[in-house]
Structures are given as C-alpha cells and as structure tokens.
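Q: Focus on the chain.
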Amino acid sequence: MRVLLVSLNKLRSYRPALPVGMATVASQLAARGHAVRCLDLMFEDDEEAALGRALAEHGPELVGLSIRNLDSQNFLEPVVYTPLAREVADWVRARLPGARLLLGGAGFSSVPEELMEFVGADYGLVGFAESSAVALVEKLERGESPREVDGIVLPEAGGGFFSREPSFSYRAEGVAPLDSSFYDPRYFDYRFETHHQVRGVAASVQTKKGCVLECIFCSNFLIDGTGVKLRDPSEVVDEIAAVAASGGTAFEVVDGVFNLPLHHALAVLREMERRRLSLEWTCMINPGAVSPELVERMAATGCTEIELGTDSGDDEVLRRLKKNFRRRRIEEVHRWFEAAGIRITHCLFIGSPGDSRASLFATFDLLDRLVPAGHPDHRAYWTLGQRIAPRTGLHRIAVEEGLLEPADRLLVPRYYIEPRVLADERLIDDIERRVTANLNWYLWWGLGRIPLRQRIADAQREQRRLAELYGAALAGRRREGALAAAR
C-alpha cells in the first residue's frame, strides 16, 4: 500500500524535536514492503503547497497525521496546535478524495475521540504504533475490517466511536531498526542558541517506554500505558554507537525520566563505559532516584546538562503531587550534579494543589540558593499552573473542587492553578517580583513589560475564546456528519 505520513509538529522554541514516532512507524511499514513517504512540516513555510507536492508525487491510499502536541501546555501562552491537523485533513480530502485519513501520535492518544471528531478522520491509533500501524495497513490492503487492530478508533455510522484497547506491549523482536533517512535532512543543518552555546539538533535515544511513577498531573499512561517497558541496554548502546559512527557528536535521551528505574539507567551507562563511548548528551532526571554512582557515570560518559523535575520546594506540595522525593533530597542531588560539572535546569510549578504563600516562598528561597542570580550554568524554569489531562489525579481534583465538569472536553487546554494562589493579587505581584529579580529564572517572556496580573487576565480571556471557537467547530463537524449520513 502507498502510505504518506505527515508530521504536524512545527514547534522550534528552544529546540526542534525529531519526529521519532513517525520515522519508527515508517520504518516498520517499509520493512514489510509498503511504499512509504514521510512529509515533515517543521521547516515548511507553505504547508499546503508542500502537502500538494507530496500527494501528487506519491499518490497515497492512506495518509497518516502524526500529532505530537495538542497545545503549548503553557497557561500564560495559550497556543493550540490542532487546527493544522484539521487543515491538512481538509487539503487531503480536496486533492485526493479517495485517500483515507489516519490519526496517531502522543497528542492523539491523549484525547482520541475529540480529535477524530474535530479532524474528521477515518481511523485513529492509540498507544504504540510499531505493530498496530502495520496490522491496520495490511487489513486495509486485504479489504478486511480493522476492528481487531489494537488501539484502533473508528467512527460509527450512527454517531460516536468504536475503540479497541491498545496492547501497550513492547517487544524488540521483529521490530525493524529506525531508518534515519525518513528524517528531514534540514534538522541536521539547523542551529539554535542555548544559554551556553549554539548547537545543532541532537539525535534522539529512548531507553524505555513508560514510567513507574504516578504523578497526579502526568498523562504518560495514556500514551505508553502503565508500568515501564525496558529496552535491552546493549540495544540502546548500539543505537548510541551508530550515532557516533555516522559522525554525530551528541544525543538526547528522550525518556520522560532517564533514571527510573535506576538499575536500568546504570546498566546503560556501564555498557557505554565498556565500549568507551563518550558523546555529549542530555536527559531529564527525577531527583528521587539518583545515586553518587549514577552522577559519576553520567559525567564519565559525556552528560553535560540535565533537566531536573524539581516541581516544588515544599514537602506537603510534593506529597500531594505524589512525588518520590522531598525538599532535602532536591538540594542533595543538585550538589552532586554541580560537583560533577553537569549543568542543571530546575523545572518547577507555581500553583500546584496545596500551594500557598508559605510553600511558594519556601520554594523561591530554595531556588535562590541553588540557582542564584548570575550563576553561569544553572537555570530555573517555572510554569504557572498544570495542564489537566483526562483520567489523571489532577483531573479528579479539579472536578472535586468544581473547576471542571466530569464530561468537559479537554481538546482545548484547561489548567489547574491553586484557587487561593490565583485569587491573591498581592501574592501574584510577589511572584512576579521574585521571578524577575533573578535573570537565571524564567516564567514568561513578557514579564517586566506586562504585569503578571494582566497576563493572567488576558490568558483567561483567550482560553474562553478558544473554547467557544472549538465548540462551534465541533458542532459544525457533527452537522456535516449528520448530513452525510442522511445522504
């Protein structure tokens, strides 16, 4: 079957991310003999023209849209990315009416039925697509019903959707290696500026799927299932060795957190050391699963920078977030990485459940010590509020507190901000004062010119506008569907 896969992600802020999922699925389909082409819209100025060329040249029978991000996940900068998915789908239908439309990707797995309705797709795949995409394509090629495909989502003739649970099983056996030729070569010429240097896009390496934690705001279980699926450390290091052999000098571990479980991270590092591999690399780290050996081996294999999931500096807030560490541990782990010469970016929330003036000021005081103004290496990134994902603990809290209705749609982002924080204007002013006093801290690019109180009010208005806009769009899709069914 002729298949065109389209990556819709155009987000370049900080650094563009390689479309690993799309390239992985393309590699599996190509290994089975299907004619696969990938179109990445990351660097396209005229998306419609680029798609038109790909459709004309390849003539696909199936067009798959990879949806990595639904939105910016930033309350203060509420940007929604899903309109591009709908536009691309409409362009496909206009130019190639016989082609069928498939949706997938991490963003799709978060709110699959809402996206199926909004885009008007023929099929959707939730969860891992290494095998399910192959199964779907082969059933379509044989003219069989795809209802037995793991993770399939299908529109029903009378309205609503049929869905089958994804398996979330991962077996390396029978999975073709990722073919990097499916990546747009422009990634490897792209340069972006960090706090420390101008860099190119690093190779992406994944050591596992899933996570062992149950943080209340995290939607990883919707994408990777519950629990963790480990890759063989030798297989992971084979991939790193291939990066080095091809002339690459850097890679990024794209796991949600690299060091959970700790024994697996250590096994990967020991294998890197055994093969004497030392490339520049970065990752995300959970403070609760760090040992001196981990830090030592990370430094020895070339780790230069980490993102530390600090979240808060208050023990009660960390407990409510279901974190596996407390304030004292944050400081200890920071000192270990600092002594090893590894740069640290702390990632933190303002307005988590249970936050108060006291908890926020305790967090600010801690970060003042760890990331003082003018420090040459370390940074702190603050996020106001947390994006609410369905079926999470945060969703339950928001419903219990009357901030959401159980049936509210979440295609348009909704955020949890501790109500007593949001209602305290003096505290909002104090938050702005504390953050802007330290140039190594970042909350929102406009602070200093636009007051935080004003930006919050503007963001709330923008969220209401987006909700009305999407509500009207979904109602229009339902009317179109009803008219089509009547004909």
In short: The chain is about 40% helix and 20% strand.
